[in-house]
């Protein structure tokens, strides 16, 4: 198992939520103090460097018009980390290509980052969360189709090396595509795609990309992973799916001191509890299929949608969206989750989310890296196969 340290780069110094309608899209940026923001980025970068020092890889992402993640241009941060780090793999998860107007520009940016990092880049692509469609002035309808056309165009731009080609698609039109530089890695950096629904995961599996799912817990993850495995096998990629093609992102905090572990975990829950968003941003018309909306109306809301304000550390652990406690407890929680979902090869641990201060964040990183991560790598080797719930994972022959 590989572990990637992940921070949402939040700006948590906000007024009481009773004073605003939404933390996303419309919260006035007069509440942002650029000097405080610069100091926060100094510490966030320092925390990524601590993670590398402790043997973890690094993940970053982007969001728009929200203090929950003040990184609206992840390629810029990626470029900085490409030069500040020297050994960690760098995962950008991800580029919201449904909302980007120019996929070729994305291909250029990622190729340059791969050059700057000397081939340490892993590139993730996301459809984008519903809140940001308004911020991007994008149509919620057919964002999946836009996503896949853009992704195919990006890969073609990376791998076509004998002169310009033209692309005339449904959503994108480009002439004379001939990017300089091309990627450092041959034929291109590893590709990740996030999906939290079984339908999306099956398509990712059929393409063989690394599948990442976020905070889907015990309720959603088994179905998502099983759909990926089905897509993988039906595409002729083999009867078994390697665990290194699957990734899961939980909130995670650990300390040898149980009281400190509990306090750190409570601070991480800010990321969920502060997400005050009205329904017209949560679920814009056309973002999800009609049948999904029907299920929502009948009460089948996503796992995280119910009782967020009342969410406790214990409930979050029980749901499988958080691993927290002493190193022994966290190891046992991860092992239990791993076995229930059939196995996964990457853990994208969100170890910083807003209210957690720098000292406690670094303490959590170091405790995990020194007291949990070595056991995970030994217990869950990369050559294992991901299996359906109830089947034992085992090494892939050959």
Tell me what the structure shows.
This protein is an alpha/beta fold and 398 residues long. Helices cover 41% and strands 16% of the residues. The chain contains 14 helices and 14 strands. The strands form four sheets. An eight-stranded parallel barrel has the order 1-2-3-4-7-8-10-13, surrounded by six helices. Helix 1 links the parallel strand 1 and strand 2 (57-60). Helix 3 (103-116) packs across helix 5. The two termini are 19 Å apart.
> What is the number of helices?
14
Largest sheet: 8 strands, parallel, barrel
Question: Percentage of helical residues?
Answer: 40-55%
Tell me the Rg in angstroms: 20 Å
Please state how the strands of the largest beta sheet are arranged side by side. Answer: 1-2-3-4-7-8-10-13
Strand portion = 15-25%
Mean pLDDT: 92
Low-confidence stretches: none
Q: How would you summarize this macromolecular structure in one to three sentences?
A:
By secondary structure, the protein is of the alpha/beta class. The chain is built from 14 helices and 14 strands. It has an eight-stranded parallel β-barrel with strand order 1-2-3-4-7-8-10-13, surrounded by six helices. The chain has a two-stranded antiparallel ribbon with strand order 5-6.
